[in-house]
Each structure stands twice: as structure tokens, then as C-alpha cells.
Fold this protein.
Amino acid sequence: MLIALLVPLGITSLLFTIFLVRAATMKRAVPSGEAVVLGAITNFFDTLGIGSFATTMAWFKFRHLVPDRLMPPTMLVGHSLPTIAQAVIYLILLGVLVDPVLLVGCMIALLMGGLVGVPLVARTSVWMIQLVVGVALVLAAILYAMTNLHLMPGGGTAASLPMTLTIVAIVANFVFGILLNFGVGHYAPSLIMLSLMGLDPKLCFPIMAGGGALTIAGAGSRHIAMGQIDLRIVIGMAIGGIPAVLVAAFLVKSMSLEMLRWLVIFVVIYAAAMMFRAAWTGRRDGKAGASIAPVTT
């Protein structure tokens, strides 16, 4: 089963890499040095369990690296190759221990949701994207706080779920895949859901990483084709992120992350407030523009 999972993942990764390099070459995109550092830091701590979406979004907003509309797709594509590296590691270490129906079902559902979400985010108003990202940041801050306060579900010891719960998990992953395109990470909600269902928490990681790798590569390819990303940031994040994942996975055996999470909470909440303010301003200005638009016949 492990070979059956790794082969299509490897082919998908190769095709995505070729697609990305081709697009960067055509656009003559030079990697951003700041994006290299950002990709290294966020993916290092993502591999250790901190997460990367909220921190990346917050940095994008603070530094004005990417226009708000392009933030979710740029982040999604930028984290693609590092996430694939994580997926390979988790699948090799833990993938064979998980029920194959649950593992493959959730991975495919997340991928399908991710593909469905690409045109949705492209057609969504900027202020709505800002609002969704703001909500996602607040939820991330709450989950970080719950983790530090030991309020997260402990999970069980199961390696599989009853069929009814398996179906619920698969459907939920389809929704998570759609939301990925709006910058809403799926690791935290997946971990909470599967743990509450009784799955061993450590066995959630091959499900989350494997599905995330396929989805980000699949949806990311469509975002590249549509051109609504900043390739300089994307290439930089990928260059910095891949070695950081390998260092975190194989060289760092233990690290205290509690204080870092508290710091991330404050940063993320501030970034969320900025997003809400931008969304409110954008919606208000849009309504004002609509109200004074000339009537044509």
C-alpha cells in the first residue's frame, strides 16, 4: 500500500515541479530572499506541529509582500513542495499503520475539494477573501491557545474508524479542501475531528500530510495556470522550505514550542484585526461606489 501511495505522489510532485519551474522560467521570476527565509521558518515549525498557514498569512500582511487577493493562492503554491516532503516522511513512518480506506478516502476527498475551490476563490471579492482569512487567523489563534492550555482532544488509540465515521471524515475533508484555497489550514480541524472520533493522534499526520500534498499540488497547478500568484515569493518559499522540513523531521528530536505558540497567537490576532479592517473598508467602499454609479440605459 505504501508503494501505491508514494508512486502517484511522486509522479504528481514531479509534474508539479516541472510546471512550476516552467512558469517561473517563462516569467523570469527571481526568488525573493525574504521568501526563502519565510519558507524555511514556517515549514520548519510546521513539521514540528506549529502550522504554517497562519504564520505565513500574518507575515504577508505585516510586510505587504503580496496583495490581499493573491495571498491564499501564493501561500498554497509556495508551501506545495515542502508539504510534499512532509507527506513522504509521514507516509513512510506511519502510513502503513492507518486504515487504507480512511487514508486514501480522505486524501482523495481533500484533493477534490481543493480543485473545486480554485475557481471559487478566483471569483470571490477581495473583501470577502480578507474576511475569510481574518476568521481563519482567529481560529488558528484559538487552536494555538487550546494546545498550550492542554484543552485539545486527547484522541484514542484506534488505527481505523467505523464506516459511518469514515464517511463523515471523508466528506469533511472535501470541505477542508475547498477552504484551503482561501488560506484556511486543514491540519488543526482534521486533527481535532479525527481525535474526537477516537483515532490515534499520531496517525492523523499521514492522513493530513498526504492529502495536503496531493491537494496543494493539484490545486496549486491550477493557480499557476491562472497566473494569480506571485512566483518570486512562491519559488523562494519552496527553496527555503524543503531543507527546513528535512532538518525538523530528522535532526530536531525535541523542542519546547509553548512560548513560540503564545508569541504566534499575538501576532496572528493582530494580523486578523488588520484583515478585518481591510475587509470592512473594502466592503464599505464597494457599496459606496455602487450607490453613486451612473444609471445607464
Summary: Residues 53 and 125 are 21 Å apart (CA to CA). The chain has a mean pLDDT of 85. Residues 2-282 form one domain. The two ends are 64 Å apart (CA to CA).
